[in-house]
Amino acid sequence: MTASDAVTCAKPRAIFDREAEWSELVAFANDPREEPTLGIVTGRRRQGKTYLLQALAKVMGGFYFAAQEAAEADSLRRLSDEFAQYTQAPHPVGWQRWEEAVDALLALGDESPLPVVVDQFPTLVQQSPALPSVIHAAYRRLRDGRRRNRTRLLLSGSAMSVMHRLFSGPSPLHGLAGLDLVVRPLDFRQAATFWGIGDPRLALLVHAVVGGTPAYRGDYVCDDTPDDPRDFDAWLCRTLLNPRMPIFREASHLLEEEADHLDRAMCHSVLAAIASGCSTRGEVAQCLHHQLTDVTRALTLLHDHDLLVMERDAFRPSLVRYRITEPLLAFDHAVVRPNRSALEQEEAASVWRRARAVFDSAVLAPHFAQVCREWAVNFAAPATFGATPNVAEHGSLPEPAKRACHEAEVVVCGRIGSRPDVLLSVGLARWNDVMEISHLERIRHILDVLADRGEDINRAKPACYSGAGFAPELRAAQARGEVMLVGLDQLYAGA
To answer: Which 3-state string (H, E, C) describes 157-182?
Structure first.
């Protein structure tokens, strides 16, 4: 890419962050090879995929088409109309078959590299199941004929499992893509900047309910942001707990494209069980009084659509826990859905007062622990733990002799030399508790139990993570090098 190209392809100021994603897209679109290439762009809804792709097409003079739910003939007609407008043809071509349309789209790059974007691609495949084979055949003809062509076709979609299926296994498109870009939610630090929140406590409170989905700040809450931590409750009441705001029902919409009616009902029940504290398949099945097979189907569906993540236990690798990836879903199923009827009939403030305790225990506490784990892996300097962390997990350590099970919310492991999973730290995370020396004593006991079981604890640093602060005695222990203390300021600005 020349210097002039670099200026031309500068990321528009209107796009917040997304530096890495933009660089990947520009590099793909400017691929110098004289053959057509294919890229895929995926990510959950509302993450800004369309905004990015529209901007890329505009900056580079490319073609952008957004599919809609329609019959095949209607989609071809719309595509033909927009293609004619783009090429300034006097009349639409009036394609009757996808073979004609795909050949015409690929021909756009005969002269120079050109991005051609088809957004919501799974919608077109649902209408025309043969479309992946049509695209594969068109690429094969161009490559076999050694025709000079530099079209950079980008296929995008929000249906994660469908996109995965379209580009893996026996699919005609398998192995054809040279770019596989996932547009993920903003991390907790980026989200704080995006919302314009400088107070770390307020930033975490907001992130616990809306996460890092950029779209929620605009139309969904009308750019309403809380002024300070004292305004948080009132902000919730006028936005997420307000039936007249679009975000009030957004959590339900997240599942609409992913499952039929019966599956959605079970998925909502499973999410409610996980939001209440159940984390394993057995716990969810027991909570819902359903067979394990029924629950497993819903868990698999939610996992395939990136709404749940499976995480191993740090101390018991065979134990797998499920965690809701989208904070809005967790908040909705813990707080909103159980109180939906009341919210539609009463003042939100009175409902919120009754639900606040559930929010603190079922939403805030686990979310804070997850943010601590993300900090340990993504933001902590190697010197913080004595090595570069590669994983931070929740650990549960049974001690049958005492009929106890010890929980550690932030267990950090990393590579030292040739050893890939050295225990670097065992930590407790408490959102609303001022942590005391008793918390350090609890960590020391966990380390003693691990040592008795043969675990190498020589490099394991005790760590306390708190959203409320630390008692003087614990700070004195930190001064003696006995414990690492991580508060909100370090989570949001330190390493």
So the answer is: ECCHHHHHHHCCCCCCCCCCEEEEEE
| Main-chain phi, psi angles of 120, to 5 degrees | 55, 45
CATH 1.10.10 matches 190-364:
yes
Query: What is each CA distance from 33 to 28, 30, 376, in whole angstroms?
Result: 10, 9, 40
The tally of CA atoms less than 13 A away on the side-chain side of residue 441 is: 4
Q: Which residue has the tokens 């006097």?
A: 90
Contacts 24+ apart (CB under 8 A), 487-491: 488/200, 488/201, 488/204, 489/200, 490/375, 491/188, 491/200, 491/204, 491/371, 491/372, 491/375, 491/379, 491/465
List the one residue out of 93, 76, 75, 72 whose CA is nearest residue 84.
93
| Number of Cβ within a 10 Å radius of residue 428 | 23
The answer to whether 308 and 274 have CB atoms below 8 angstroms apart is yes
> Cβ distance 161 to 304 under 8 Å?
yes
Cα→Cα distances 359→283, 330, 444, Å: 20, 10, 30
The SS3 assignment for 26 reads helix
CA distance 41 to 124: 15
What are 378-435's pLDDT values in tens digits? 999 999 999 999 999 999 999 998 889 999 999 999 999 888 899 999 999 999 999 9
Domain ranges of the chain: 3-182, 190-364, 379-493
Hey, what CATH topology would domain 379-493 get?
A: Trna Endonuclease; Chain: A, domain 1 (3.40.1350)
pTM higher than 0.90 = yes
pLDDT in tens, 113-137: 999 999 999 999 999 999 999 999 9
What distance in Å separates the CA atoms of residue 429 and residue 206, rounded to the nearest whole number? 18
- Give the CATH class of 3-182: alpha beta
